[in-house]
Amino acid sequence: MHEHLSNTTTCCLCWGIGAIAVLFAITIGFLYKFSYRKYPVLPNGIVLITGCSSGIGLYTAEYIARHCPYVGYATVRKDRDMTTLQSLNCKNLRIVKLDLLDIQTCQNVINQIHEHMESEQLPFVALINNAAINAPFPIEFHPITHAKRLMDTNYFGSFHLIQMTLPLLRQCHGRIIMLSSFVTSFPVPKGGMYTASKCALDGLSDSLRRELSPFDISVSVIEPGMVFSQMNRKNEEIADEILQQSNSSEVLPQGQEIVHEHNRKHEWDSGHDYDYTHLLGEEVSQRMKDIYSYLYTNEERQRFQRVVAKSDSPYCVAKAIVDAITNPYPRTRYYVANYDGISVKMYSWFLWLLNDRLKDAIVYFPKKKQDNPSSTPILDETGNVSVSASDKKKD
Question: Domain 45-379: which topology?
Fold first, then answer.
């Protein structure tokens, strides 16, 4: 008798828990449904895309020009990259030079867009902030000059361009698309400054979305996983510029010429193929690799190359960007592509269940290293890592 009551109680308890779970899921579903916000969809107009020399920017510019009723203003820094875009032969694509660190070039492009809007009575549909740079350094050894350049490009450049385009966007009820990264959810070693810049962009986007809500201006963040890119070619060029500005005598390896071809896996430049020794000098670079040796092992290189081999085409990101522009119910965040073969959207759902220590263990869990007092880096008057006194004695 007691056993029967116990089984009945257990059964009722299980059904009760199941009913609560179903009710909870339905409630969450309704909340999501009612939280959707409808925005105006512009049937034609002008789209401004930054950072179109390669990768996501290049593929997005081509995709919009070929498949959307919009005129794309694709921005690049170098004449060579203008030639690459011109070879696409897209009549709806206008290639313009723009350097996010040069206010005058930004203003020139905005003026061109404004004149185009007035002459052909076209609205300004969207600003796509894609331009970014990166360089893989442990934070301790990341040169402050490069770190500032990175933040100026990845964050303040986008920030300033938003300020300049908002009057046009407000007038036309346009949209803002911010290219962030999955690293904001899953930061990795040697990516500290890049992650910081993208986290700053995420925070800016959230605040901006709420500020612009009364004006019917949608703000969407795209968070890609691993996609094929040529970012390191641009990073090498920027490193060269930094060296020239500081009158350095270091010689920078020449960046490889890139020819655009669709879906070519060898287009990817692995961050591990570039150690940016020229920014640190041989002595400091070697000391960095000695201290953080676990980040420069063959096993780590092979692991990263395995992740890279599974990268997706930039077209998947381009499609998400177009959806953010043309969908009357755009998402606030788009998780696209994969990381190590697993969809980053799945990662985003899974990671919130884990605490920080568990995430640390997933990314890296190396053995403890003994401190070496003699390997403490010395900063010069500009704040950059310099050669230590012991290294100078070797010279």
Answer: Rossmann fold (3.40.50)
Where are the alpha helices (H) located in the chain, listed in sequence order?
2-35, 55-67, 79-86, 103-120, 144-151, 157-172, 192-212, 231-245, 277-280, 282-291, 298-309, 315-326, 344-351, 356-363, 389-394
- Note whether 219 and 178 are within 8 A (CB): yes
Read off the pLDDT band of 254 (50, 70, 90).
Answer: very low
Identity of residue 135:
A
The dihedral built from the CA positions of residue 13, 16, 22 and 27, taken in this order, carries a sign that is negative
**Cα pseudo-dihedral 202, 341, 321, 180, rounded to 10:** 20
pLDDT digits (tens, 9 = 90+) for 150-178: 999 999 999 999 999 999 999 999 999 99
Domain positions in the chain are 45-379
- pTM of the model as a whole: 0.80
CA–CA gap between residue 315 and residue 308 (Å, rounded): 16
Q: Is 350 exposed, middle or buried (0-12, 13-18, 19+ CB in 10 A)?
A: exposed
